[in-house]
Amino acid sequence: MRFSALTGMCLLALWAGGCSSVSVRGPVQLDGRTYVLPPAHVGQKFGAGVAAKAEPEVAYQSEDGMHTVTARPFVRFDSVDQARTHLDLRQADYVLTLGGLELAGGVGLFHWGVLEGSRLNDVVNQLDFVEDVDQKQKLGQPYTKIKYTLSSDFLVGRSFSIEAEYLPVSRPRTFPGSAGRLRPPTAIDDTPQFESPLGQWHPSFALRGTYAGPYLNVGVTAFSGHSRDPRFVAQLTSPEVVAAYDLMQQVGTDVSLALGDLLFKAEAVGRLYGKRLIPSFAVGAGVEYTWFEPFTLPCDVTFLGEYTFDHRPLKTPKTITQNDLFGGVRLALNDDAGTTFTGGGLVDLSTVTDLGKYSGVLRLSAERRLSDNWKVLGDIHVFAASHKAIEWWLARDTYGQASIAYYF
To answer: What CA–CA distances, in Å, run from 282 to 121, 140, 306, 376, 382?
Structure first.
């Protein structure tokens, strides 16, 4: 990608406004991971592996607050999977703020929606699937954006905003290599297919309007371009499959309502796939409850439950959250070290049988600061998969991971 125009805007912003705030932050992290079971597929490696990542962020803001420049590269080195050793530019953009008007461009990260267990409205960025299968790690998306926010004293804590985004290129999803775990049994070709004659350079457009109030938040979204979810197409002359990206039109909404310690959340989307405009829809809802200092103990406990139904007809991209129940709990000790424990599980209800066979994932994690700069983290991922499930290939990939991170 070329960023000469962005660089010029950044230099102009710093010259015009003067740099009053420069911040450098981000983690450098070392991970040790081991898998419990031998691999299921040919070529995969078994045993422990070591990986390191760095995700520094450098941000500049002019004295008057009008100009903001942010750069956030990402790099990962993995001792086992060559494909997981990768470099990305998560963010590198310039934002001009003129009152309620915001003009921005470059590479960015966007987060739409309110659900934790699934991503229905969140379609702007492509997933970095080689980094993690939790569907929360994203690749940077080149964009140009205009946003207007209306907020004033007479609105009393309420605001309205609308933003439009031009996305000049669609990025293909990353996948583990042949030696890596957490991958399908069939290798994926390095050359993806895009439905448009323009290929990945077919532009996408995104639109989002929001209302933010003291208790109620509402978002309405629209998207037109290549789907970020691929279909996998078998090849006649190769054992590999190809990731194919169809054109997609999507409209959706997300809502959250806070009532005391309770938070209610819901999302819904409608989609049309390909030139044949194959219809699809998805809905999800959940509730979150935070119990502050239970029994006067110095901690907070948050409970979360969600359900998602995502209907995908034949010849449309598949999803691993098509009929799923998600539950989780988070314990924050409220100590100086910021110690937290989190547990969450996702169960595919369509695979549950009378014999108790089911597909799902359980994740347990903990983190604690050792000092202002050092943090330790631990994760355990447990996978269970029925042969009926799309994600059956994850069944033998249960693993544990310990990490230490330095934040500068």
So the answer is: 10, 25, 13, 37, 26
